[in-house]
Amino acid sequence: MSFPQETQQALLPIARPKQRVTDSSITDPVAEVLVDTGLAHLNYPVDYLIPENLDNVAIPGVRVRVRYGSQKLVGYLLGRKDMSERAGRLRPVDSIIDSIPVFNETTFNIANQVARRYAGLTTDLLRQLIPHRRKRAEEKVLSQTPPPSADTVEYETDYRLLEPYRFGVELGKRLANGEPARAVMDILGNHVETGSWRQLIAQLTACVRHAGKTVLIIVPNRRLAAQLSQVFPEELGEVGRLDFEDAQARYGAYLQAVLNRSKIVIGTRSAILTPMPNLGAIFVWDEQSDSYQERHAPYWHLRQLAVRRAIVENCGLVFLGYTHSVTVEMLLESGWAPYISAPAEIVRDTVPRINIGGRYHSGPPDNGWIPDQTREVLREALTDGPVLISTPNSGYRLANICGRCGEVARCRHCNGPVGTGRRGTPYCRWCGRPATGWNCPNCNSTEMRALGRGAMRGAEELGRAFPGVPIIVSGRDQTVIEEVDSRPRIVLSTPGAEPSARGGYAGGAITDAARFLSRPELWVPAETMRRWTQVAALLRPQAPLALLGSVEGRIASAFQRWDTGGWSRELLDERRAMRFTPTVTMAAVSGDASQINAAISALQLPDTADVLGPVPIGMGKLRAIIRVEGFQGLELADALTAYRAQITSRHQKAPHIQVDPDDL
Predict the structure, then answer these.
(1) Would you say residue 201 has pLDDT above 70?
(2) Which of 82, 284, 320, 627 is least buried, going by the fewest C-beta atoms within 10 A?
(3) Which of 4-8, 231-235, 381-385, 453-457 is predicted most confidently?
(4) Count of helix runs (H) and strand runs (E) in the chain
(5) What is this structure's pTM?
(6) What's the CA gap between 631 and 621, in Å, rounded?
């Protein structure tokens, strides 16, 4: 295993003539170790001497403990050699952490390339992707007898669930033939003929296993991983789950995959680089989920690692979801992957009947926030099964405004928004003080009305509007429900917590739809379509679905037609016209004024780079945005890395750097 030359920084020590290590009797006694120092100017491998008692266990791909300066740090053993460029005696490796290799040359090089793309450290990324060693789990795995392994799987491939999609059967056949097929697949809802997303992934997995290859499946969270793990027949091989919260179970599952005992691996974001021999395909469900964005440096996104791994390991890659991101749309535009979707005639027969808008009722406030006409439609749907109502917020009443002029009600102590508890008492949502005796500073009125409803307030209003109908609330502030039966009831849910219903929901509504859409962030339009389609996918074919909240325009029309691909293309065209990611590369540099000014002055930027700002972001900090063309992304990342290395080598605090931030 060798460390890629292009990632070594300009501050590397001057190369010296190689000298053979003569004070060791073992073969290749020099260990090339990438030490996890956390410092950019020390992001290169260091030579250590392997003691004779560690000769048999110092295998490339294991983690080691070494002395670095006065510290004992973790390092990654990249390789062994018989000569070193380092003058003088080499420090010995203190100990070996792992009994078996936990990474290989391929996965290391992928991590290294992605870390470079995000102007980060390879060690940071490896630390996030490789589970900490757990001795008991390791001993348990090594004591087990490996299951018999077969080159092929005697399992009849079935393309029934792929037939409704253009090029769907072709995708299945290519995977079954062992080809590295790649695709972006926008699927329909849980219709009996098209199957659920879990059944569809299981069928694609069966195609890959028919070719005798292994499969890696990535989902946004543990709840979905648990659901997915139940749909695979035993004939397809051992299924491993890398989503366990328990560290022992997760490390044991990781080792089972490394040892090729798990033929199908299901995991969340951090499982993407799990070493798997003979990998046939990677399936990523719902790649737009914010769960796939790493929140710690180097702030990588799963899409980058998935695409890079598919290229390097020459395996298949399929992004599946009800819609897809603008970044994946660029892959389609480049021709790297084909687009697979259902034709219009199947879409019409499969998706719900979507009604846009609707006037709010003119009756008493206690009747709720569902329009009269929609309420009647839902009441009729309740005679045939459960009804799903999606509300964007949890809690009770989110905020209040003046009942006369519409001014936002704010706390007189801290200026925070005034909400209302379940007992009807107004209080500040920031400092918690009661807001009794509030009066509007604009018109002096004492009347307040709700600016937005939370799920608990909505449940109360639905109870008055639909007397005698059972109401279930599913959301992050309550218990997240997995599934409901087919009996008539109202299920009120926040985004991402919608339970499935046996046989599908008979009707539904998405309330306050315009509220989330009004946010200024760049990702909001794509995320809005994602949330709406996830609700619609749970309804029966042709079931009524009301989109409430004064939503108009292109997104409402695209949703009504279920034209998710067309909506992604529109958003990509807008990003290109505005010169936003992913059509360009952008980097945010944050810090105090002196840090920002020094960074902008010292950075060796491409000639075409734009510097936007700096602008205040709070807490006395500023942020500047650097924008370059997409093909100059690596040049920008290398410049940022080199600058941070210079700063850390002087023992100074570097500014915060993030490439392609998701909060613009």
Answers:
(1) yes
(2) 82
(3) 381-385
(4) 18, 30
(5) 0.86
(6) 30
The backbone torsions φ and ψ at residue 64, rounded to the nearest 5 degrees and listed phi first, read -130, 165
* Contact present, 420 and 434 (Cβ < 8 Å): no
The pair of structure tokens assigned to 118 is 């995000």
Looking at residues 158-168, what average pLDDT do you find? 91
3-state secondary structure string, 222-283? HHHHHHHCCCCCHHHCCEEECCCCCHHHHHHHHHHHHCCCCCEEEECHHHCCCCCCCEEEEE
Report the chain's mean pLDDT, rounded to a whole number: 86
Q: Do 664 and 654 touch, CB atoms closer than 8 A?
A: no
Structural contact between residues 56 and 94, judged by C-beta atoms closer than 8 angstroms: no
Q: What span, in angstroms and rounded, lies between the C-alpha atoms of 398 and 452?
A: 5
CB-CB contact of 286 with 321 (8 Å):
yes
The SS3 call for residue 141 is: helix
Q: Tell me the one-letter amino acid at 351.
A: V
Nearest to 32 by CA among 10, 56, 62, 52: 62
Instruction: Break the chain down into helix, strand, coil percent, rounded to 5.
Output: 35, 25, 45
Give the span between the Cα atoms of 445 and 285, in whole angstroms.
51
Give the distance from CA 255 to its chain's centroid: 23
- Those residues whose C-beta lies under 8 Å from the C-beta of residue 106, and which sit 6 or more positions away, are 275, 312, 313
* Spatial separation of the C-alpha atoms in residues 266 and 484, rounded to whole Å: 25
Mean pLDDT across the stretch 166-179? 95
Q: Count the residues in the chain.
A: 664
